[in-house]
Amino acid sequence: MFILELSFGDEPDRLAARPAHRERLQALHREGKVVMAGPFPDDSGALLIFDVADAEAFATIVDEDPYYRTPGVTIASQREWSPIIR
């Protein structure tokens, strides 16, 4: 599994890009690749949990979504995670 933490700025581009990003997340969720995803209550960022086999698959998911390169969206952290309770 992989965790992606985002931080958000005030740029309007982020909000304009969000609907397409959420559609992608829904599709990945249907495929079993996104476990959970959502913004923090203060809208300062978001946390996403991916269930993919390896770092290459995770990198491909991130690279294919332009939202992660949108002004106002910063990848604060991305790392592999080994949960002991699922």
TrEMBL record:
It comes from the Bacteria. Residues 12-74 form the YCII-related domain. InterPro entries: Dimeric_a/b-barrel, Sec-metab_biosynth-assoc, YCII. Belongs to the YciI family. This is YCII-related domain-containing protein. It comes from Micromonospora inaquosa. The lineage of its organism: Bacteria, Bacillati, Actinomycetota, Actinomycetes, Micromonosporales.
